[in-house]
Amino acid sequence: xxxxxxxxxxxxxRVEPLxxxxxxxxxxxxxxxxxxxxxxxxIPPWANSSMDGYAVRSSDTDAKPVELAVVGRIIxxxxxxxxxxAGESMxxxxxxxxxxxxxxxxxxxxxxxxxxxxxxxxRVASGAYVRPAGEDVRTGDVVVRPGGxxxxxxxxxxATLGYSQVRVHRRPRVAxxxxxxxxxxxxxxxxxxQIPNTNTYSLMAQVxxxxxxxxxxGVAPDELDAITERVRWGLTSADALVTSAGVSVGxxxxxxxxLERSGAAxxxxxxxxxxxxxxxxxxxxxxxxxxxxxNPVSAMVTFELFVxxxxxxxxxxxxxxxxxxxxxxxxxxxxxxxxxxYLRVTLREDAQGYGARxxxxxxxxxxxxxxLADGLAxxxxxxxxxxxxxVDVIVLRSLEPRTR
Length: 404
Ligand code: AMP
Ligand code: MG
Description:
Blueprint: H1 4-12, E1 20-24, E2 37-38, E3 48-49, E4 53-56, E5 66-74, E6 88-92, E7 104-107, E8 111-114, E9 117-120, E10 130-131, E11 142-144, H2 152-160, E12 165-169, E13 173-179, E14 183-184, E15 195-196, H3 199-209, E16 213-220, H4 224-237, E17 240-244, H5 255-261, E18 265-268, E19 273-274, E20 280-284, E21 287-292, H6 296-314, E22 324-329, E23 333-335, E24 340-350, E25 353-358, H7 368-371, E26 375-379, E27 383-385, E28 390-395
Parallel strand pairs: 5-6, 13-16, 13-17, 14-15, 17-21, 19-24, 22-25
Antiparallel strand pairs: 1-12, 2-11, 3-10, 4-6, 4-7, 5-9, 8-9, 18-20, 20-21, 22-28, 23-27, 24-25, 24-26, 26-28
């Protein structure tokens, strides 16, 4: 049996970033840059005021009050009409360009103004309340590197630099196929021995959260021909395929055979972890296929550990891992058995950092353990972490205050 790290390494060595497309910057949000963002301009292009006040020459000011002539008025959006000479000042507003000759701003609350004269009460430092030209970026600066994630700040920067479009990696289209005679899909009446199809929906949602695009292949019964037909479609029409269930060793576990029949080469199929273990990974050409276990928690956790990083790599992202943090167990966290545990925990911040607590029953069919989870505690085999001891947690969601 492989370790999680060995399995992940085997997967990542077989997936590559997808091609590149040019999109409008708003459509680039949440995607990965495929070109460096190089500044085409110096921002701000000229020194400007960060306050409403008076532009002055700092050398005109003194420890004693000095009176200066007010010889102009500069509003944001207009250029100063002339150079500032000794003994002069200009009324200036936030964001307006400094006149030639001026090197400091005196905020309006620090002066006494009367008619076209203004009294400065003390010495002013050169550069006070001045935003120098290029304090943000300079022409030629590489501001974001390829492989970087485009969030709201990057969209704003692109607009600032005059990019209306940008080159990003294509989003993977990921086909999702659930298998099992017992599954009743959403909107159909379950038969007497049927259960609702959970995994199609949780997996499609995980695909979207990973920045990719799901394609729903529905539910196939446990029949080799039916599974093979849909697997073939997935392996030829999508960028990746994810199947759920039918990968253990039961006689109705037909997914691996269907994958092989569809021309996929299988590279591994058992990983030492709990929940999970029976996971299959294969490729057909450059297209990866993941055969995930059927229990809803196992499907989600194996997606997290193996499919998500692979999709992030296909999206061109440099950072493909979730953040991890070291928390303090708030109660004993035990992982009996010989496989590494990924236990669902809530995280709560207090004066000593983050505290982790189990979400309750950890059965691999108990989806509520995922609903409550902020993260996965990574616990070595045959290990009991006592309350107060440190525990490593993979963070699954933003740790905002929650009402649950
Ligand atoms: P299997 O891997 O086919 O043995 O399935 C393992 C368990 O997961 C069984 O209890 C199945 O009923 C359940 N299961 C399989 N597929 C799904 C699904 N799409 N939604 C919810 N439960 C499922
Ligand atoms: Mg089954």
